[in-house]
Amino acid sequence: xxxxxxxxxxxxxxxxxxxxxxxxxxxxxxxxxxxxxxxxxxxxxxxxxxxxxxxxxxxxxxxxxxxxxxxxxxxxxxxxxxxxxxxxxxxxxxxxxxxxxxxxxxxxxxxxxxxxxxxxxxxxxxxxxxxxxxxxxxxxxxxxxxxxxxxxxxxxxxxxxxxxxxxxxxxxxxxxxxxxxxxx
Length: 184
Known about the structure:
Blueprint: E1 4-7, H1 13-24, E2 28-33, H2 37-49, E3 53-58, H3 64-78, E4 83-86, H4 101-129, E5 134-140, H5 142-145, H6 154-162, H7 167-170, E6 178-183
């Protein structure tokens, strides 16, 4: 099994920084993007310039069927991921009374459902490979203490902060621990 790590939302920001650091540490990086192909290519160019290796993957983390199709094909072609960094996310700031159904749904599907959509097709091949690895979920302090005008962020980030605490108990023989990182 190659030591490859998928980083969702790697076309910019924190995801790009994580992807570049993983490449510098010797991992082959799956640079995920949804709409920002140019940004993903910039990430790939940066990690290759630093001597790293990687490839881009495009799918909508909120679309379960699309995630499954792309990730199953990737695993069939390149083998199981050694790690997954669930980083992709969006915000829709504003006062709760003004929040639209579409904004609420977009945040929940992208920030919470994406966790299942991305991890579910990856986890059994990771466990089956018995090579260890790690699943990292980026969360937010908003999931713990909230933030004015960011009500849409609180429920999915709170759920993501709590979820990994139970995984090691259910995967104790899998050697694939998980971690949630609440970023400020």
